[in-house]
Amino acid sequence: MKDKVRRGGGRNSAKADVMSYGNDASGLKLDDGSSFSVKVQGAGVEPFELQVHGFWIVQDAVVSLLSRSEVCPRSNLSLSLAGVALDPLAELQTIKGLKAGGIVRLVEDPYTHRSARFHLSRILELLKASGPQDALREGRSPSVLETLTHSQTPDSSQPNGKALKRSASNTKTESNSQDGAPPEYLLPGSSERPLMALLPHSSQQEAPSFLKDLCLSSWNPPPGQRKLQGDFMYITVVTHEGRHFEITSGPKGFFLNRSTEDVFDPRPAPSSSVFHCFTDLLCHISPAFKQTWTALKNRPQQSSVEMAPTLYHTLSWLGPPCASRIHKNTFSRLGIDKQAAAQPPDWNEELQTARDLPHQSLEERLQRDRAVQQVNGAFVRSVMQGAEAVIDGFVEPVNRNPEDPAFLWGGLFMSQGAASPAFGGERGRRAAQRLELNCVQAYSNLEEALRGLHTLPTAIVDYRGVRLSAQGLAPGLESSEQDKELTPASRGLLYGVNAGPQESAQRRQLLGLLASAAKNLSLQKNVVLTPDGYKVPLFTSVDAQGLVGADGRFYILDVFRTFPADANFCPDVEIKSPVINSCPEGETETPTVNGEEEKNSCDDENECKEAYKGTAWPEDYHSNYELPKSFPHNLCRLRPELVQAFIQHKHRHFTQHVRQTLDEKGGFEECATSGDSRSTDAVKAACREVGSVSDIIFEMRFNPNVFCPGVTFPPAESKTVNHQEKLQKEAAAFIVTHQIPEFMQSCLQSNEAPMDGASLKQALHQRGINLRYLGHVIKAICQSEDREHLRHITRVAIGEVFIRSTRRVFNNFIQGVDVSNLSAAVSHFLGCLLVPHFTPSPVGEEGKKRSRRRGGGGGGRGGGASESTAWGLLTGAELWNLVCQDAAETYGLLDNLGSGLNHLVEHYGLQKLSLLREFCLKTGVQLRLKDYFLDNQNKAPIGPDDILNIFPVVKHVHTPMVDASNAFRAAQISMEKGLLEQALEGLKEAAYLFGRVCNNLHPEACYCHSLLAKVSYLQGNAAEARSSQLKAVVISERVLGFDHPNTIQQYALLGVYMFAGGETALAQKCLLRARLLMLTVHGEDHPYAAVLDSCLGQVLTDHAETFLKNSLRLNTSFFGSTDVNTALSHHLLAQWMCSKGDYRSAMTHEKEALTAFTTMFGDDHTQTKCSKDFLCAITTQAVKVERTLRQAGAEGPEQSVECLTATTDTLVEQMVLVTGIRRITQSDKFQEYKRKHKERKAAARKEVEIELMSKLIALETVNGERKRHDQETGSGKEAEQGGKPSEESQQEAEGSVETCATDSAHSHEEKQSQHDGGGESVEAQTGNEAPDEMKSEQLNGEMNGEAEVAISPKIPKSPLTWADVVVSKSTVANGARAKAAVNGVPDVVTANGVAEE
């Protein structure tokens, strides 16, 4: 069989994709009826058409115009219609005379001093023309996709789109063997890990040189006389022709003056025109500038996801190979971009103002979300700059406390926080800063449901070993020495332990907001005692304070202990919280909220909590898990994800208990409908059983002040405190007994398991597992029977423990290093870490070398010299002991790290390169891009010159994008239900909304585009899938990182879609790129490496067998011999061996695949039958070939052996299955359910027919008696007609019987369907019993065939392809779900709702 290349891809699809690749979002419009085009002319630009929307204001249209290449870089423009200037704030749809095809004119407005500087800064951004290495110099993660897909042809200087199109067009003419052979370091088993290949040289040209010099003139500032005549500033320009010009900036624009280097003459030069745009003047005076500027404007425009700046800094741990710039910065002396603002920004006011924007319509919400995103991004960038300024010593503290210095910089309040012994010293201080940020994030997430309660803009930043907390300044909350003498109410303090008894309308409003927030966060209202003995009711932790600012907004501060304590790591967990037996007389704070009684108070519990029978700890809990125990700090809190998971777990027990109790008392339906007290008693008993805080409804809330040192409760709260202690102990035990085993089980079943520390952290946090449980995760895996299958998780967890402990040691190490020795100190630390027998050079010798380079002598080094070089005394053994000590204290790992780094490499398979990458990403260290030899046992592989920079690492609050996220989640639900058309439309809408809010530069936008590509491919549109996946790759590289695990997966998916479109060369490059990143991040021993090797075995011609055999080895090692992944690997090898004529080996591998399918699915399953057919085809072909060879004879002519070669469609289908784009049918239970349901339906019909026959017989008997009676009486219509029965009456009687029988049958069928759909249908879908916690959306998704019905686009298949083996025969040709029972209804429908015959 000869391969056939699928049409519809290749050059044409590449061209279409490149065109869409350069546009924003997906090109959709939410309101197409309001968009129209107008013609723009004037201001010296060529007329062009502009697409506008009716809901735009005029200023939006101006902003859109300024971004057009026809207008750029002009600025300070306005619009006019029919000679009348348009109001910038007027909506376009309200302007009279403005319609489609209308002409609007650009008007050049006079400059102000500020607008003139803005115009110059806008031009400077274009003239700087960032080169391909500038992103690395700034520490930002670059995008490598354009370089990877660029065709290496002599004339391939065009970036991005045209290069992609040209390389795609050359794909069909080049053979696979030209570029198909992978380099040796990418072959399975290779230990070489070159770094230079990670960031290949970009195809983009370096930034061109426009001018020799451009700076502010020495004649600045203009004298008073010239200011009165409108001179703003003077600019000096030196062109490449060697000419020197002095330029004046004024209200009308820019013009040449008569000044020279020695003579000041501000008058306009002879015959000098005034140019509104500065570049027009430069083109007029310099032909060389004009030529370069024209080339710059005519270059292909890149897409927004490539050019738009990211909101947040994504660190690149590798810098450029050459630290120096190729071209000098000729524009730095202009001073435009470095002019400090007259007043620092008020970050809190800007953020709160953006949040308070109108949000009624969709357009208003999009504008609001975009404004919030922009403000938060600017705030985070300012925090990075402020941290560098503070720690580098450019800012003086505003207080005189050396233990807790505070700084004010750029509208930010930055501090380290006090190292309180009650919290655990330095570790407790860092934990408090991290918890404050997490809790601010939790309250910020309530913004949509709870408006009126505000939090300050908050971020934490780690730089040079110091952690700073940065916040915006709230008006009126800055306290001075005089303010401390005022009452709390006078200072704006309305809520908190120190607020005192108050009563005001503002306080009642704030209490209402806090009560609503506590309900959303599952916090219980509690009462604590102040040091004076007064009762204070709280809705938060004891540290929180509620204030009203000078702007009238309510703020909540100090929320770092909002979430409940982790009882596993509380020092006094076995000691009950202190309860005061008596309190002094006095006024007690017992306010109610909005007139409600305190229903959660424990004054009258009716002994309900005494009946709470849940034990505090599981049996043998301490002996099995060595918990509870102490921790280096006292601020161990549960994550909000764990709280929600525990509440759901308790709710399942609650519902099970209620159902079980009602079943014992006469049945659920009888008790629920009888109206007696049995159902109420069952609910109360279940509430007591699960520990609900309410007696009549299920409600789980947690007291954040339990297990907090120094917090006392009144005696009336003793029962509630005891109940909360038991509840929080159960929640803590829930992590170890439920969440960690579930995490291990999910890793066993998925080949997309965590690859590095970031992905492991995300996976653990999604289940509510804190990283302090890493030691328990490692121990649980080591004690599990599946420890060999989970060795990759053990490897990542051990590496994460090692790097986190190393980072804490590094923070203490680097704080005492002088700025001039930072590079040497970091390289020395890395040498001690990576080299077992590292012997550093003497510190004094290094100091002499540095002093010689600086040209200084040895004098001047007094007593401070020994202190500044103390870092050089650190040895490798000392460093290793410190790391092991920290790992033992924090994670409870005593002997797991061994005696050195070589033990981790040999015992766990860790890579030194992967550990180096993790260290740099966590500490902000940037290394030079070069190949490091890390296996040296004596010499340090990294020198001081290889340390390029140290960047701040910022953690910040993530602002929501409500409408875009909701649309994305709705599309995901539709995808789970099998509604592909609805999911596709929802994903397109979500992509458009993400583009409007954040220019798609957001992790969630990346996931949206990736899922959009998947659904598009399943719908049969490979070109659209390729286009969306291109964006997903670029977004992932720029937002998450060029070597992030998600980027690896996105590259693999892009390779599949490119191969589906006939672009084999590009597919090979993408898959090889994914494998290179995989080897760097984790190594080869990972389940996802098997996925990449399987795909590479399909697209490569050289070394295909090597990759396929390695994939089989990995799948067998991780999943066992009876697994779908292993069976697929066996088949891929069998197919490849068939193409080479090795039918004996092919039969062996296909038999293994058949055995696996038989074991998993049974003999009657579709996959098993198709595998048998494929094995028979191999056998038949082998017999045919053998017979042909025998007939030819030993002495006969050589016969060509016909080989079974898979088609391109078959290869694509297999790659789709391997990468998880389409899932293999796990079982035939859904088909079995339909068969059983049809049998029950037939039995019900038969029963109804019997009942119908009996009724007909009875009716005939009645009619016969009536007939005899009528004949005897001689009356009735039948008598008049000679005794013949009336046809109408007979038809009416038969119709009534049929109607009754039909209704009965339908009722019976519906009842039977509901019975079957509620039980067996779910089991048929999942292969086991449906869990009680399954949500309705998930249930609908499975009932629609998500888990069992394979989706397949309509593609031509050759006879006996593997697509026939793995795709169910009942699938719909267009890719929709087929024959899926929806919500238990037995009708056979497709996903689009069309009934199937």
TrEMBL record:
GO CC field: cytoplasm
Positions with biased composition (Basic and acidic residues): 1263-1287, 1305-1318
Chain positions covered by the region annotation Disordered: 148-191, 582-604, 842-867, 1262-1343
GO molecular function annotations of the record: mRNA binding
Stored SUPFAM superfamilies: Hypothetical protein c14orf129, hspc210 (SSF103107), TPR-like (SSF48452)
Domain Clu stretches: 325-570
Gene3D superfamilies for the chain: Tetratricopeptide repeat domain
Transmembrane segments: none
GO terms for biological process, alphabetical: intracellular distribution of mitochondria
Compositionally biased region (Gly residues): 856-865
Record's keyword terms, sorted: Cytoplasm
Compositional bias of kind Polar residues: 148-160, 167-179
PANTHER family per record: CLUSTERED MITOCHONDRIA PROTEIN HOMOLOG, EUKARYOTIC TRANSLATION INITIATION FACTOR 3 SUBUNIT EIF-3
Record's protein name: Clustered mitochondria protein homolog
